[in-house]
Write a structure and sequence with these properties.
Layout lengths: L23 H5 L5 E6 L2 E5 L2 E2 L17 E6 L2 E7 L10 H4 L17 E3 L2 H4 L5 H19 L11 E3 L4 E3 L6 E2 L4 E10 L2 E6 L11 E4 L6 H13 L3 E12 L4 E10 L13 E6 H8 L14 H10 L5
Parallel strand pairs: 1-5, 10-14
Antiparallel strand pairs: 1-2, 2-3, 2-6, 4-5, 7-8, 8-9, 10-11, 10-12, 11-15, 13-14
Bound molecules: zinc ion (ZN).
Amino acid sequence: MRAAEDVTFGATPLDRAAQLRGDLGALLARAGASTIVLWKGKPLVRGDALVFLPLDHPVLKEAERSPMFLGLRAEAPVFAVDISPWAPDDVDEEAMGQFFDPTQNHHPATDDTDNFVELRGVMAQLSPDEANIAATARAIFAWHDSHEFCARCGNRSGITQAGWQRSCPSCNAQHFPRTDAVVIVLVTSGNSVLLGRSPNWPEGMYSLLAGFLEPGETIEAASRREVFEEVGVRLDQITYLASQPWPYPSSLMFGTAGEALNTDMTIDPVEIEDAKWFSRETVLASLDGSNPALKPARNGSIARFLIERWLKDDLD
Ligand SMILES: [Zn+2]
């Protein structure tokens, strides 16, 4: 697909400079270094922009882990610092546990207008470069959070390679950040698209069907299997369209398309709550707000990206 990397999180703003990761001290000492800050997966933003701070900013004292090196921008290192140990006293735990966390959190050491916000809420407003930087940091911190212990021997591992690896001092195993492959399929039948919803989604929201790849599967096979499992629809030829890093917490979405061989559905209630065929006109009306009963996939998701390209007949 042309311009496939225009998808949210698809930009490549940094030279990852993996060859420099072995010497974090030298990177931290380089001129022009700056860092973004995350708290519990929420990036620090000011309006529609990520906040970049100097490495001696007082808020960074909240961190327990050393800064993670994201890459070089115009030769200056860009880091990410996780200050999740910070415990503000006004946290709404229930709101933070929702599918979409609407709360913002302000640290007194930052500017008055700076807040930690859910990335899903700003991903489509950030510049493409900043969206990618925030997504990269969010995914790698989530990996460290859930991989503190060695998967081979169970002992505590340590962060190495400026954040890009964990090494086990007990058995010498090396662990690398994982990415979970997911297929997300634009299933069409003539003028209609197949959209489904999960039970925990906002009311009225429907999106493309998706699922994790399993060992031994191609992207094409996984696309066919997922759609058949969820709704009982068989697909013809599968076409790969675009991919999107999706940091919730660490997926890579493979967007594909397939024409349905049957339109009758058998919905698996374990997998999804509902699925329907929607005409182009119905989906267009939901995007321009004239059909409030159907809420489209969130702006910034690859589902929304693919649906909009399909509506414009621009999938090539
Ligand atoms: Zn080990």
